[in-house]
Amino acid sequence: MLRARLSGVSGLRHPLWMCGLRPFFLFAALSAVLLMLPWLGFLGHGLPLPAVPGGPFVWHGHELLFGFALAAMAGFLLTVVPEFAGGDEFTPTQVRRLAALWLLGRVAFWSSGVLGAGALAVSATAHLALLGGLAWLAAPRLWRDPRRKHLAFLWALAGLAVCIAGFYADALQGGHPARWLYAALGVFMMLIVVALSRVSMRIMNHAIEEAGIVGVEYRARPVRRNLAIFCIGFFTLAEFFLPGTRLSGWLALAAAAALFNLMNDWHIGRVLFRRRPLMLYGVYVFMATGYATMGLALVFETGAAGAGRHLLAVGALGLAIYAVMSIAGRAHCGQPFETRLWMPLGAALLAGAALVRALTAWPGADILTLWLVAGLLWVAAYGLFAWHMAPLFLAARTDGLHGCKGTAIP
Amino acid sequence: MSFLYRWFAGIPAYLWSGWGALASLFLLVAGWEAVSLAYGPLVLPDPAAAFDRLFALIDSGAAGTELALTARRAMTGLALAILVGSLLGLLAGLSLTASMLARPIVTVLLGTPPIAWLVLAMLWFGASDGTPIFTVFVACLPVIFIGALAGTRTLDHHLKDVATVFRLPWRMKLVDLYLPHVVSYLFPAWINALGNAWRVVVMAELLSSADGVGASLAVARSQLDMDAALAWIAAVVLTLLAVEYLLLEPIKREVERWRPVEHV
Amino acid sequence: MSELRLTGLAHAYALKTVLEDIDLVLPAGRILALVGPSGCGKTTLLHLAAGLLTVQTGELRNGFGRPAAIFQQPRLLPWKTTRDNIALGLKAAGLPRAAYRRRADAIGRAVGLDGDALDQFPHQLSGGMQSRAALARALVLEPDLLLMDEPFSALDIGLKAQLYRLLLDHQAARGVAVLMITHDLMEAVRLADSLLVMAPDPGRIVHRFDLGTPAAARDDDFVHRTTAEFLRHGDVRASFGLAPRVSPAATACPREIGTKVGAGGTAQVLPMPAGRKGLAC
């Protein structure tokens, strides 16, 4: 079955290349699982990880941010840019080139411990070329839009490019590149706030309609969003230049408060408790509590900053990617919204993973066990996703359409 | 009933909307921390030191006592100003001649710095409570007077015509026409005056009293105790913030529900 | 039979005479339209009739017991909900709360305001909704005299038509006497039984027309035709500051009207003051 689906995958006609999100969401889902398993092996049994500059923790962060999350972002942008800004869909050739760059980045980085600086340079080039390619495809369209209201995506691409360039510059000079990973997490948080504001308008208002609620309308207004983005950006800069200071702690608290403030937009009644709205809302809950935890940890000088960071990475980033991939992934493959139980179950597993990972900050907690449990929950969530969604990405559309065209439902 | 229901149902949303204010306050504290980092604790102690001292002051009970004393003085002066200013302003507003007469006098009162009044008050009242109370009274009076004056002067004669044509009895005219309109001018003036009173009373105490928050600030200054000075400043500001956002703002929202909203 | 009778009425603000020698009678159940250019004293006349100004010269006898007014702007109290605004007159008359709210609801529905709109404050309503509320506030009193000062002038034609219908239905059902001011001749022709043309400097009535066809039976065609005929009339043209027509039909009366009553006693074509242009006076 799988073999049948994969046959002819090298040809441009294979459904996998029909739409940008297909290969990249597939990469994201598979890498979420395949990157976590060796990490758990390393944590639990000391199994070796690919030797990279900075050590195993840098490998973990780099791969989940610049492998997993970047793939999801690429798939998202390749699909929504033509939809938001108009124009033809991107061609299978373009999609394939970018996918090849992503794969090259994995191989080069993993082998950099063995092959040395040359592989690192190749990896840097592959990652930057992937971002550059995305910008090359997206920028003209986003710029042509008369109101240029989606330029934020370009700024996010630029921010990530800076982080990647900095990371590899540090790595090549033998420095400790982890700070660039922290900064990249900040950029991803801002990107989520921007992306969810676009996605949530449709999801929420469709859910309102679906629930038959009248007189209520959801509007993602820029006022609160901009404050949140500003605070996150400020904190990210402060953490980069003045790591571990109270100053960055206050800014993290400001970011948390601004994110809680952003939730005001969402408090419009019972529609929030429906499946899709609740998933997206959960992203903000985790982001706000993540920054609050980091802020408190920095201000009161406790060791909980790592727990806060993983509330952001697992809770906010993991859940946001999961939600967007499962909603947009189906819609742009011509499928109606998923009504089966695996989808909310996966979201709940991810929420559980974030909470368990955060519990490691609890005094006297059995950190290793919690790490492993959190990792397994993550693997289960994305395993479910891959099991149900991968066949969709590999198969032709059943509605007779071609490309990325979304179904009427978001 | 519906009023009470609305009031209580609105509390969670109102409190939650406070996160925005909290975000900007955290940014302010971050700015404070940044200055303290750049210039060192001798110039500006960091927020944590000031807050530590503040908690110590609260624990020892000193903060409560001094704040209560200062609040009593500020409120007495403010209450007098509200009473006199509102009444005089309303009366002046009723007569064109009186409002013409009042304007330059109010300008003089507004233009006189509170510190000048403080000097006079110290000569008249010495070190008694009278000095801060009088200073607060004089500082707040013109603001309230102008609010009340504007309230009566701006009453739309179009609406008065409506009241006449629909034969509103005088009680209805008062309750349904004049009062809501005048209150919409008076209330912001009162809130404005409250902030004024709170600032002026601390200044008056600093120079003239032996107790109260202002006096404590004076002590901190004489001992070059930056932490304590900042702790007292934080106490004053936080009290005002709490009164403004937990008490006055909800009342204002309820009173002015009919106004087109500009807030976000 | 009650009536509103003005005899030899004149009015001046400081040194400027705005009304001179006004005679008119409005019997119960009739609709009388005062038309004329802006500033010709129409509003002053209406305010005198409404009791908002004190009569200086002449006599004003108002035999109606329950007057109500609709102003040029909706003039709703901004701090009251639409429902309470509509109920204002009823509350003033001492009706218990439940009763006046029920009646306000009923009339609100009749003019097309739903429950949501009734719960909202005026600033939350569109201009058209506010005008409906103002109309409802007057109609809910079941007045025997309705004074209207260009209440529809700011509305689009669709909304105007709706409100005309509401007003005419109400008028037909209750037999209310209406004194309306307008500078819109079509509006006057559509609604009124009689038209009084006013001229400025000083404001006076220069012409009276009675329309034979009942208001309910007038269609768009009738309104357009009759308005066009009015506009050919010398007094009307002079009053609005239009150049006199030189065609033979210029001084003839519109067909249906026939009677020409010199209500103010000064029905001749007036010479235009030199240099005056447009409608301002």
| Cα distance spanning the termini of chain B | 28 Å
The helix content of chain A, as a percent range, equals: over 70%
Structural class of chain B comes to mainly alpha
Question: What fold name stands as the CATH topology of chain B?
Answer: MetI-like fold
Q: Any idea how many domains of chain B?
A: 1
CATH topology of chain A: Cytochrome C Oxidase, Chain A
CATH architecture of chain A: Up-down Bundle
Biggest β-sheet description of chain B: none
Keywords:
A: 410 residues; mainly alpha; Cytochrome C Oxidase, Chain A; 14 helices; globular; B: 264 residues; MetI-like fold
What would you note in describing this structure?
The complex is a heterotrimer of chains A (410), B (264) and C (281). Chain A has 410 residues and is an all-alpha fold. Chain A has helices spanning 2-6, 21-45, 56-85, 92-110, 112-115, 117-144, 152-172, 178-210, 222-241, 246-262, 275-299, 305-331, 342-359, 367-394. Chain A has one domain: Cytochrome c oxidase-like, subunit I domain (Cytochrome C Oxidase, Chain A). Helix content of chain A is 73%, strand content 0%. In chain A, helix 2 runs antiparallel to helix 14 (367-394), helix 9 (222-241) packs antiparallel against helix 10 (246-262) and helix 11 (275-299) runs antiparallel to helix 12 (305-331). The radius of gyration of chain A is 20 Å and the shape is globular. Chain B has a single domain (46-255), classed as MetI-like fold, CATH 1.10.3720.10. Chain B has ten helices and no strands. In chain B, helix 2 (47-60) crosses helix 10, helix 3 runs parallel beside helix 6 (130-153) and helix 9 (213-222) runs antiparallel to helix 10 (226-255). The radius of gyration of chain B is 22 Å and the shape is globular. In chain C, 34% of the residues lie in helices and 22% in strands. Chain C has helices at residues 42-50, 82-86, 88-92, 97-110, 115-119, 127-139, 157-174, 185-191, 220-232, 234-239, and strands spanning 3-13, 16-27, 31-35, 57-62, 67-70, 145-149, 177-182, 194-199, 204-210. Chain C starts with a strand and ends in a 42-residue tail after the last helix. The chains are: A mainly alpha (410), B mainly alpha (264), C alpha/beta (281). Chains in contact: A-B, B-C. Chains B and C meet through helix 7 and helix 8 of B and strand 5 and helix 3 of C.
